[in-house]
Amino acid sequence: MRKSLDLRTILSVCAYSTLMAFGAGAISAQETSGSEWVTSWSASPQAAWKGDFPLPTLLPFNLWGQTLRQPLRISLGGETFRIVISNEYGSGPLIINDVHVAMAQEGGGIDPDTDHTVTFSGQSTFSIPAGAPMVSDPIPLKVANFAELSVSMFFPSPTPVETFHWDAQATSYIAPGDQVGVAELTDAGPISTRIFLSEIIVEAEMGVRGVVAYGDSITDGAASGPDLNARWPDYLAENFASENVAVVNAGISGARLLQSQMGENALARFDRDVLARPNVETVVILLGINDIAWPGQLFAPNDPFLSVDELKAGFLQLAARAHMNDVRVVVGTLTPFEDALLGSPLEGYYTEERDALRREINDWIRTSDSFDAVVDFDLLLADPDNNARLLEDYQADYLHMSPAGNKAVADALTPEVLFGND
Known about the structure:
Layout: H1 7-20, H2 29-33, E1 35-42, E2 46-47, E3 62-63, E4 66-73, E5 81-86, E6 94-96, E7 98-103, E8 116-117, E9 126-128, E10 133-135, E11 148-155, E12 159-160, E13 163-165, E14 172-176, E15 189-191, E16 194-195, E17 197-205, E18 209-215, H3 217-220, H4 232-240, E19 245-251, H5 266-275, E20 280-286, H6 289-293, H7 308-324, E21 328-332, H8 352-367, E22 373-375, H9 377-381, E23 382-383, E24 386-390, H10 403-412, H11 415-419
Parallel strand pairs: 18-19, 18-20, 20-21, 21-22
Antiparallel strand pairs: 1-17, 2-13, 3-12, 4-11, 4-14, 5-10, 5-17, 6-9, 7-8, 7-11, 13-16, 14-15, 23-24
């Protein structure tokens, strides 16, 4: 699809292609002629942080002699699919003894009639090198649009959790022993993070188009409600599934454009989370509020207050790299945040000075000719009586959107906005 690729993206795509070509995962003639791969679900990997950061990781100390079961809902379905497990931030090899996938049932259960052992380069027990992802062989299970899957992994030896996704907005489960193929887990405890699991890639119909939602907690779905699938990328996927469009969420709560802490900065992870994915046509960027609000308060007490020129340069870098790879760039204006985190230990997230910088950036986004489309989420979501705050019906905590607010964001991303006049 793309006419030109930068070097890092070429290497990333080659790595994925090599992994996909091994052993039982060899790409068939059908896959190359009558279908195309596209990412249908994702949870962007983050490095687990240390105790000097104000938010807890919510992770277990390690996984040892335990089963981890992670339910999820894909966007677009397909004839077969692959899963990706990431050891990107691991300090050593990640050893997994057994992986199964099945259709999910409520409460962490699975439908045993759909249970499949997952192999990686033909192996069911495997080791992922530090810093690497591993792509599974194709799994012969046809999945519909919005199918709910459950991926179960067994860890036989003490395994530190160094790669994860903090704000899953979904409940996963940890249970003792090897229960990967068991219909109902015994003695399972819930967790609210994603661990190691990073992508589901489906074999979709020819002509599939991928859309990546690239942002922070507003995109990641913070405060939208666990297990509701009420993030704005979820609603966007529902709007476009009948058009052979897959939508993936590459939001990271706490993500910033220019600095790293809760995940790498947006410039650093752009290749992995956007450009290296197969058949991506459009990226929707809604990012920057943490760059404005973090400096000088508890999240980043020593970081300098950023200038508008520094933030503009970050957006322009993302746009340039996307355009070099024939990816359409849609940018949203930054949403209002007065009263965000008011009364919490993180009070001070909003100030008039920070809001002035947000407005200045928004004015530039609206008038810039560097993007293929701009959506004015600020205007869409602001309270008309106080445009520094989110409209009451659209807000969950005056920083993040309610499901109604997320639906409004998704509905503003029309076919013309996402794909132009194609």
